[in-house]
Amino acid sequence: MSLLERIVVDSDVVHGRPRVRGTRVRVSDVLSLLGTGATAEEILEDYPYLTVDDIRACLQYAAAQADHAVLIAS
Description:
Elements: E1 7-8, E2 19-20, H1 27-35, H2 40-46, H3 52-66
Antiparallel strand pairs: 1-2
Helix pairs in contact: 1-3
């Protein structure tokens, strides 16, 4: 399984926001924790059902979302 396959979107779960497969943990939750300085180890202590690859998948997903063309109307 590629890392991005760990991230899923289902309109019936967490209001259709991207989340880690098999959990209700949103990508944005993991990114917020990392952004406030939490380490992967701290996240895994708080969410023992996640893996290091889940955290990496969240980062990879965010990077892919941020790397899109921006069209500016002139």
